[in-house]
């Protein structure tokens, strides 16, 4: 029997789940299909930092991040999804990095996005665990939030089931093996020989490029990034509020590149091995007290992504990250309890969107900003497709 819906979504990561959310808000019936028992790719393998401050002030992607942040807070007020509003703090290590922070504060104020500039003394008063020799000052964004990535998207799924019980269905362990259009309908078939139909299908498949439309992905220009991350054992005394980002981040995130003073940063201040492995240092403390530290970046075109050492973490990269992290932060316990990799697809156009026969919509390649912007971009995309 064919089951009929208004919208079918393939993939239960952040892009898929929030496409479902906005379709449901628009009054549609939705079926969400996930090939694994639970989503397990980039949406759950990240820091859980929601940082619109990393995106160019006033840009459409910064706006998507603002929308997503408010949406997270709104859902959290109704249903626990693990959102904490503790802000984001960028710590400058050099005078030139501090000059970039000062310029960026003015740019964010111009678009009505609160940013507080702190001296080194003000930073150390609020974050006494920062190494005094590292800090030249900081820029703090009090409105920004952090998430627990291992639970966020799963809790949002539960929320959708509770809030829209008559119009929302989802299936896990359900690989989709075929999609085709027939007139004004998309037919979706699954590995267990079920068939579903809808007016529109959104394929939010992360870095899965082999099952559906491989010929489209082969010429898409998508590449895959591999990240190394690790987490300490729970800290007994150290408390790290919110998202903590550092001088290496200032040199990497695109919001800073919009500043004229960015050109004055001295490349010699960054160790060559950090350049080689795309390392910038972030910290985020989990609810259990453990601290996530990372990350690094290695890249491959999608046809070569299996060559990104998918079975192993390179401990040499982890050791470099720990070396740099210890220059910045004082922790009770630097012993590493876990280390893992994350993989995400990215595209030079910020995201890869491709429509087939006006009813099958591929949406992937949002890059490292998925936790920050997926919920906002999905609102835009659902509105565009459903109202076209």
Describe the structure.
The chain has 388 residues and is of the alpha/beta class. It folds into two domains: 1-84 and 145-220 and 351-388, FAD/NAD(P)-binding domain, CATH 3.50.50.60; 88-142 and 223-346, D-Amino Acid Oxidase, Chain A, domain 2, CATH 3.30.9.10. It has eleven helices and 21 strands. The protein has helices at 14-25, 60-78, 95-110, 120-126, 149-163, 214-218, 247-250, 254-257, 272-276, 315-328, 370-386, and strands at residues 2-4, 7-10, 30-33, 49-50, 88-92, 116-119, 137-141, 145-146, 168-171, 176-182, 185-190, 195-198, 200-203, 223-232, 243-245, 282-285, 291-294, 298-301, 336-346, 352-356, 360-364. Strands 5, 6, 7, 14, 15, 16, 17, 18 and 19 form a nine-stranded mixed beta sheet that branches. Strand 11 and strand 12 form a beta hairpin. The longest helix is centred in the first third of the chain and has 19 residues, at 60-78. It starts with a strand and ends with a helix. The model has no long low-confidence stretch (mean pLDDT 96).
Short summary:
The protein has 388 residues and is of the alpha/beta class. It is 30% helix and 26% strand. It has two domains: 1-84 and 145-220 and 351-388, FAD/NAD(P)-binding domain (3-Layer(bba) Sandwich); 88-142 and 223-346, 2-Layer Sandwich (D-Amino Acid Oxidase, Chain A, domain 2), CATH 3.30.9.10.
């Amino acid at each position: 029997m064919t089951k009929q819906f208004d919208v079918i979504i393939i993939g239960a990561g952040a892009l898929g789940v929030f496409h479902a959310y906005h379709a449901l808000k628009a009054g549609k019936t939705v079926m969400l299909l996930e090939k694994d028992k639970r989503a397990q790719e980039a949406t759950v393998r990240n820091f859980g930092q929601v940082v619109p401050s990393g995106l160019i002030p006033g840009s459409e992607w910064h706006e998507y991040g603002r929308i997503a942040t408010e949406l997270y807070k709104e859902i959290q007020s109704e249903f626990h999804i693990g959102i904490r509003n503790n802000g984001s703090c960028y710590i400058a290590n050099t005078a030139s990095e501090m000059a970039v922070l000062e310029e960026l504060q003015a740019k964010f104020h111009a678009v009505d996005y609160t940013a507080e500039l702190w001296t080194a003394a003000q930073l150390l008063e609020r974050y006494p665990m920062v190494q005094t020799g590292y800090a030249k000052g900081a820029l703090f964004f009090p409105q920004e939030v952090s998430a627990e990535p291992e639970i966020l998207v799963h809790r949002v799924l539960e929320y959708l089931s509770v809030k829209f019980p008559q119009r929302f269905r989802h299936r896990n362990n359900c690989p989709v093996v075929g999609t085709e259009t027939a007139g004004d309908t998309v037919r979706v078939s699954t590995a267990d020989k079920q068939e579903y139909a809808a007016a529109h299908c959104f394929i939010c498949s992360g870095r899965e490029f082999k099952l559906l439309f491989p010929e489209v992905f082969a010429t898409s220009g998508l590449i895959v990034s591999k990240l190394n991350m690790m987490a300490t054992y729970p800290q007994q005394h150290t408390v790290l509020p919110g998202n903590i980002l550092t001088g290496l981040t200032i040199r990497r995130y695109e919001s800073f590149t919009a500043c004229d003073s960015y050109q004055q940063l001295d490349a010699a201040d960054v160790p060559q091995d950090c350049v080689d492995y795309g390392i910038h240092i972030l910290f985020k403390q989990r609810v259990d007290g453990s601290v996530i530290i990372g990350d690094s970046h290695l890249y491959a075109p999608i046809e070569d992504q299996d060559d990104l050492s998918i079975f192993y973490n390179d401990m040499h990269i982890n050791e470099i990250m720990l070396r740099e992290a210890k220059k910045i932060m004082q922790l009770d316990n630097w012993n590493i309890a876990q280390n893992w990799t994350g993989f995400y697809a990215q595209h030079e156009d910020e995201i890869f969107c491709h429509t087939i026969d006006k009813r099958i919509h591929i949406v992937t390649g949002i890059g490292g900003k998925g936790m920050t912007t997926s919920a906002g971009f999905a609102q835009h995309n659902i509105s565009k497709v459903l109202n076209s």
